[in-house]
């Protein structure tokens, strides 16, 4: 529990996406109204505008990497805070309208990221089929089933690649299941809120930040990483993203082990604030896997307290 | 000129994409047969299979960042080599069939990356329109024009976002031009070939590599960056990509200033080979902007020669 | 002025040494009783025992390097504090009893460090003379003059190498002056006191510490230096000293630019306290040359305050 | 065996010093003529002049630290090479003329370094005695015994502190033995020759160098240490020495694990040659303790060969 009061939660829709699966993991969702949004941008804009109290969006996939829309939307504009993370195994089925046979399939639709993750299955079994991109895996299924919210003419394809739950919910038949090339694929989702109440430190926490370099800061990324290294802080994610100004201008989006309330993390962030053009704090929150952060004795909270006491004693 | 003998060049199609614009910059394309492919994967697979002699694919956009399909396809499978880079300004137009008025537009189609780059224009002018994803900017225009190669029912949308050239080529009308949010947006394309003849060093070169870490190598990325730092080598691109094995397992795709035939680059790559699980060399090639590499005297070729001579003299 | 109340100051005697010259630079010496000691050890022992309130001892010579007796005595035992530094140009004369001619000189006495610094002069002019070591330059002169405090039989040599002042004071004749091989040689002396009142920060300060490494701390000296580098702190002196336990076990005695009351210095010292077995603080005090410390904007006191305020604001 | 043809070996005399003990460990000394010199400088000058073929001098004491005269003489002037090292346990006796009793002793003589190492014994037993400095421990004994080469009037003291061997050789009586404060004290001596035949690599080697920094090289010592760190090279000794030009101008004298013929050492030295004003190579030679150098697989000779082969293969 984050302690957040959440009446309305948005998610990357439509219903049936992996974002909704992630959302269902959260206790906050039990009593709240859940609202699908057609893009990460619109979900986070609604959150910033106060229309919803929190949003669930994908941030990283173990096969495809970071989700640019989420990384960029969090990195710019009104500050938001990640307050929780959820990990969802990514499994796909090939779904059709009842009665459709494999040989009837001439075109297949799904979200481009899903398409990339079933490449091997398609090459082995449906290499002759056309690909029809969809805005989400769920949308491809919903449209195929002929749902009321169809966004384009569903007659153009005969099969959808989606999560099993959404296929079942819309009366589709599963021709093949677990068709992902990587059976261990997972996507990490984050629960995002407006700044307010930071989740308490649990000893198994993560902190997300975005670092923008000063043009005149020599040493670049190496210098930034040293700020973590001297405080014994491990990074679990690091991605460069263009700042959009010109080729070769990057900011760095990263997750580090530990909580803002850990002395070593606070000191590292202050150190980065001094040498960066901007440090954007995206939140400290419990790790989804609950694994305690390993800290060497030299960088423990106790070691920080002892150093503080030692320094104070020098002043007699 | 790369000195490559190129009879057939593939590119990320269909005709009219920015990849074709990039391809047209190359002298090799003048006499060669040019062939569109429906994806980066299929273009590079055709190259690996010997069906074509080279391929032009996008590798990095100044707004959206690295192109995962290209980065991943180059990082795995049979080795390929980048032999040239091309930079293409990215400008978009809103194209319609002759006679269509702004108020007639209820849905707009384009590639998701293009859609991301015109977000501001859409929000200001067409916020009520539906978005229909397409496999490329060109495909959205071709389909709208009702071309023979239409991939799905074009009746679903009334406007396409594409390059001006392709709109004109297919008889579409431009309702608004230069609609990108970032007027300086560019995409970097690479000309890829099978290993063979490496482009000669020009003094204004770039080298691309992918680094896979050893699990037991302490210090992680910091240790890898130090291999560059001690040889005075600057990085112009750095991206982490998941290896696909599990969350938090990354490889690093990067461009450095200099050529494999520069002593400092050769030594750095050998140093990385020793500490990495794998170093994948993607090629040394001239920079598109022709800007000479700045090298401090301590790391110049002459300094390397002097050090070699000094060491030899210690042996009497 | 250090603000110290000093009734009795010791110095490395006997009278006439360069330590006394250094002592005479201090305003504290004007009203105080000054007492010569026969060694650095005995002077600092008297200070620790409360017999004197301060002591002046040499710490570093621009030609010979650090003074081991001072470095080691400060590094071990009851803590003491450096409260000021004095720089004394080192010039030597060849002094004889009135009437002695160059050709009468068969043996020459002085302190071994002084002997090392006039090596060139001796080789050129008195290469056939024997060397008689003395416990100080002044002692060689005093004994030659036949003073009451002679420590050994003065008949053994006919010339002393000492400071001009002591030669004059004891009625000796100067046969040659400014005979040092290095005309710019200086020795740095320190005024040492018991812990108490730390000199205020002036903007042109130095801090002296001794670092003892943990056996299990990887990276050794490199890791310690990084603690300074990430805070933009420059070192003006660095010496390794054996800990006395076995060959290859060192502690590091060093001076850094800045005062304990500078935020970057305090943070660096706390960082070192965490990773070292022991950090021995030897004091923060004004530089003898009054040169203001150069600090990059990223590491200024203001930058530290801004980072603190930024972090606090994250907590709403 | 170094393979050196040695007819005449010098050592820091007079006879009976620890330098002679070190010399006696060398097989080269068995057939050679051995010659005492009154200082490190004169011994090394004789070696440079070709008067002797090798010299044994002390370089480092486990209690007192580096021997400045040796470090400085090796660092400047005509190049010399260390070809072997010898470790000698340092034990002292209090020696007197037969019949002298403890209560008869009013003054004690020895070399200042020895005096520093028996400080505790003296304080406990002879705190009232005067100290008479001598040019060597052996000289204090020889003079006390009334030898023909006495350098000053021996009547001035009644006891000498020296090695037991020299006391016995000169008919002195031992009043107390093993009087050193540190029972594990050792001194490391080196056998120095003119450049010529470098000792072969044994897998248990050491390399000594002196590094002079460029004024304009940023990062200072940290940058130099990184040249070792990236090649996995451990340092077993590091000392800063003033260059003599001004306070704060240092060169670094150091020993590293490994031989010039190890690929990682050769590469590190070339790297240092590029970034330093001067690298002075003092020799590669077997470790006295015979302990094999620990090398991580990433930095082994085999890893260097594999990296070389990998790079060559990139050129097809």
UniProtKB/TrEMBL annotation, chains A, B, C, D:
Residues flagged as site, Essential for prephenate dehydratase activity: 187
SUPFAM superfamilies assigned: ACT-like, Periplasmic binding protein-like II
Gene Ontology MF terms in the entry: prephenate dehydratase activity
Record pathway: Amino-acid biosynthesis; L-phenylalanine biosynthesis; phenylpyruvate from prephenate: step 1/1
Alphabetized UniProt keyword annotations: Amino-acid biosynthesis, Aromatic amino acid biosynthesis, Lyase, Phenylalanine biosynthesis
Biological process annotations from GO: L-phenylalanine biosynthetic process
CC per GO annotation: cytoplasm
Coiled coil, from the record: none
Enzyme class label: lyase
Prephenate dehydratase domain: residues covered: 8-194
Reactions mediated catalytically: prephenate + H(+) = 3-phenylpyruvate + CO2 + H2O
Pfam families in the record: PDT
EC numbers for this chain: 4.2.1.51
ACT domain segment(s): 209-286
PANTHER family: PREPHENATE DEHYDRATASE P PROTEIN (PTHR21022), PREPHENATE DEHYDRATASE-RELATED (PTHR21022:SF19)
UniProt cross-references to NCBIfam families, sorted A to Z: PRK11898.1 (NF008865)
Protein's name in the database: Prephenate dehydratase
Taxonomic source organism: Kineosphaera limosa NBRC 100340
Upper taxonomic lineage: Bacteria, Bacillati, Actinomycetota, Actinomycetes, Micrococcales
The gene coding this protein: pheA
């Amino acid at each position: 529990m984050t302690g957040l009061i959440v009446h309305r939660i948005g998610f990357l829709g439509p219903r049936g996406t992996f974002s909704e699966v992630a959302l269902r993991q959260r206790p906050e969702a039990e009593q709240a109204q859940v609202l699908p949004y057609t893009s990460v941008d619109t979900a986070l804009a609604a959150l910033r505008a106060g229309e919803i109290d929190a949003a669930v969006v994908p941030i990283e996939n173990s096969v495809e990497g970071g989700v640019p829309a989420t990384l960029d939307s969090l990195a710019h504009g009104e500050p938001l805070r990640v307050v929780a993370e959820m990990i969802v195994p990514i499994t796909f089925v090939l779904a059709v309208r009842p009665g459709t046979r494999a040989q009837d399939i001439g075109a297949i639709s799904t979200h481009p990221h899903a398409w990339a993750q079933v490449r091997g299955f398609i090459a082995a079994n449906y290499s002759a089929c056309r690909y029809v991109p969809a805005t989400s895996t769920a949308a491809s299924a919903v449209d195929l089933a002929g749902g009321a919210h169809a966004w384009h003419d569903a007659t153009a394809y005969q099969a959808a690649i989606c999560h099993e739950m959404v296929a079942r919910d819309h009366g589709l038949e599963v021709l093949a299941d677990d068709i992902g090339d990587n059976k261990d694929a997972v996507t990490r989702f984050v629960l995002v809120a407006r700044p307010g109440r930071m989740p308490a430190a649990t000893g198994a926490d993560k902190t997300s930040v975005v670092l923008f370099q000063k043009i005149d800061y020599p040493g670049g990324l190496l210098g930034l990483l040293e700020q973590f290294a001297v405080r014994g802080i491990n990074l679990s994610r690091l991605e460069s993203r263009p700042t959009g100004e010109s080729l070769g201008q990057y900011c760095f989006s990263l997750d580090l082990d530990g909580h803002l309330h850990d002395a070593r993390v606070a000191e590292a962030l202050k150190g980065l604030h001094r040498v960066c053009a901007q440090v954007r704090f995206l939140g400290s929150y419990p790790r989804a896997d609950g694994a305690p952060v390993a800290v060497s004795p030299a960088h423990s909270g106790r070691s920080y307290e002892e150093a503080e006491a030692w320094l104070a004693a020098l002043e007699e």
